Amino acid sequence: MVKVELDIFASRLGSVVAPAGCGKTQLIADSRQRFSVQTGCLS
Fold this sequence. Notes:
It contains 1 helix and no strands. It has one helix at 24-39. The N and C termini lie far apart (33 Å). The chain is mostly helical.
């Protein structure tokens, strides 16, 4: 499987649609972690 780097902060609004087991939850968790590191916000 090809890994694709997505920046979910590039858009104000959007959705992630993929079959089960494709990493949707991991994408959201990684993005929240990156956002909290960049902004210092842990909400």
